[in-house]
Amino acid sequence: MDPSYATGASKMLKDRKRQREEKRYNRQLRALSNLLPGSKAELDEVLVVENATKYIKHLEERVDSLERRLDSTTGEEDEQSSVVLSEDTKSDSDSDSSLPQILVYISLRDVIISIQCKNHKNIIWETISEVEKQQLSVISFNTMSFGRAELVINILAKIKEGALINANDLRNDMRLMILKLTKD
Predict the structure, then answer these.
(1) Which listed CATH number (3.40.50.300, 3.40.720.10, 3.30.70.260, 3.30.70.1170) goes with 76-183?
(2) Cα–Cα distance, 119 to 181 (Å, whole number)
(3) What share of residues in the chain are helix, strand, coil (percent, to 5)?
(4) Could you report the per-residue pLDDT of 70-119, keeping only the tens digit for each?
(5) What was the pLDDT predicted at 3?
(6) CB atoms within 10 A of CB 32
(7) For 3-67, which CATH class?
(8) What sign does the dihedral 85-86-87-89 (CA atoms) show?
(9) Over the stretch 52-81, which tens digit does the pLDDT of each residue have?
(10) In this structure, are residues 178 and 100 in contact, taking their beta carbons and an 8 Å threshold?
């Protein structure tokens, strides 16, 4: 066998392997470029790597920011819920029995509202309307009669994106709406 033939074949195999690797590299570079926001299918390696690095740093900062926000709101929400619970667990002798009893539980993006009040025309629809005004999306609700004139309303809702809900404010707004409706 001719030694020049073996060298040529070996060189050709190395060249094909290099071309395959180059194509694979270019596909990966294009894919990376396409993942970056506002980036066109660029093949300038340095620019793509710089943009990817900046974008990763931006995402890391965003994650840190969201984690700090989540940590701070979770603590506040737990505190708010406990305040609401302690106000509502007073005995009937401590409060006016005609006032509605309202419990508000907030956990991350979920809200549970439980209301016990006098049954009144349109109170269910007005309650749901008030909940939606508070930047909440109603997931489910149920009502039960309690005695002859009492009504229990339970609402499960999600906090809309970007909205910040305070349990005490929500409870007070619901109380005012019910009092206004039952006085008319």
Answers:
(1) 3.30.70.260
(2) 10
(3) 60, 20, 20
(4) 776 655 444 444 444 434 433 343 444 556 899 999 988 899 999 999 88
(5) 63
(6) 17
(7) few secondary structures
(8) positive
(9) 888 888 888 888 888 787 776 655 444 444
(10) yes
